[in-house]
Amino acid sequence: MVAVHHASYDYMPRAREVMLQWFDPGTYGVMVFFLVSGYIIPASLERSGSVRRFWISRLVRIYPLWVLACSVAAALMSAGIYRSRGGPGGLIAVVAHMTMLQDLLAVHGILNVLWTLSYEMAFYLLTVALFMLGIHRRSITVALVFSIAGLLLGGILPTAALSREWDGDMVIVITAIAMAGTVVLASRRYVFGGVLGGVLALALVLLNGRVSPGEGLVILAVMFTGTAIYRVERAQIGRRAMASALGVVLAATLATGVWRVYGQDTQAQRAWCLTIVSAAVTFGLGLALRRRRITRSLTLLGRMSYSVYLLHPVLLAVMRVTFGNGPDRPSHGSLPLLILFVSVLLVSSWTVWRMVEVPMQRLGHRLAVTSDEKERTKVAPIL
């Protein structure tokens, strides 16, 4: 959905313009992703109960393809094919990207889609912090707090405050050190390590996001709503409490977009509301149908969705140069080029999934098993 949305700027400009008056497919795609991530990620941590295993599996799952996509983008940028998105250059930009929190460090990602991974990483840090503090089952409370905070604070807190008021490069360096520290310490079962990561995530979302803090808090609320739904299915939360909380979170999310994010833009407000409701309905339908048999093609598309997500901006850049389309040379669109884009994207994504993602996932599993064996022989520290 996100890939086609970005391609529509080149290949369906008129249809895109009309559609955005009512519905934003990009926001829809990422909100469904955030709900699914919130539903899945805490479960992967709690099944094993090992923070070390969690970090190994997450980092090995995310970073290899991320490095590949960013490297290709950097090479194309050097060749003048791909546009720089700004932000600090040189080594400090690399450091910001390596934390995967670059969007919360006031740094534009080298790929325009990397911003979602910054909030994904913040969610990981908060999930680990709650788990190590023993309050991870209070997902409803967490979702409610974030949704209401987004509504109340969204128009008050400034964007990128830390990077503007302090030395932006120093904020990046401190974040990188804290990030490394929290992963290492939490993996060794030091509670302080988990808390450090949670505090870091909260500080960056509240005080240093590149977008409105209200929008950042809404994203976290959506993710923890996914977690709360997972807990309902495990009978850890009552259905009535969940239903009431869902109503509050949805209302606060809609109000934040209407009141705090889009101001007086009635068209954007309308699109925001319809998009958020559509994402919620889609997730609900997915849950209702999850036990039914799914076609192999859809299952495969889901497995290689990360490759599709990271590779499509690079492919768009290449096609813009090759066929002369894009923002520099607007056209009436081209359905054949859109079909070509989707076809090449699916083939290349499948290839990368098979050659990069699958082997790395197997490696991550082996490393996690080895880590578990070592961890069983150690006494857990508690401080």
Task: Kindly summarize this structure in a few lines.
Residues 2-351 form the Acyltransferase domain. By secondary structure, this protein is mainly alpha-helical. Helices cover 75% and strands 0% of the residues.
Order of helices and strands: HHHHHHHHHHHHHHHH
Terminal residue distance: 45 Å
Structural class category: mainly alpha
Total number of beta strands: 0
Q: Low-confidence stretches at least 5 residues in length (pLDDT < 50)? A: none
Number of helices: 16
What would the principal axes of the Cα set say about the shape? globular
> How much of the residues is beta strand, in percent?
under 5%
Major β-sheet profile: none
The average pLDDT is 87
Level of helix content?
over 70%
Radius of gyration, in angstroms, nearest whole number: 21 Å
What is the topological layout?
Elements: H1 2-11, H2 13-19, H3 25-48, H4 51-78, H5 91-98, H6 115-133, H7 139-153, H8 161-165, H9 168-187, H10 191-207, H11 213-233, H12 239-261, H13 266-288, H14 296-303, H15 305-323, H16 335-375
What does this structure look like?
The chain crosses the membrane at residues 22-42, 62-82, 142-162, 168-185, 190-207, 213-230, 242-262, 268-289, 301-323, 335-356. InterPro entries: Acyl_transf_3_dom, Acyltransferase_3. By secondary structure, this protein is an all-alpha fold. The protein has a domain at 28-294. It is 75% helix and 0% strand. It contains 16 helices and no strands. The chain has helices at 2-11, 13-19, 25-48, 51-78, 91-98, 115-133, 139-153, 161-165, 168-187, 191-207, 213-233, 239-261, 266-288, 296-303, 305-323, 335-375. Helix 7 (139-153) packs parallel to helix 12 (239-261). The chain starts with a helix and ends in an 8-residue tail after the last helix. The mean pLDDT is 87.
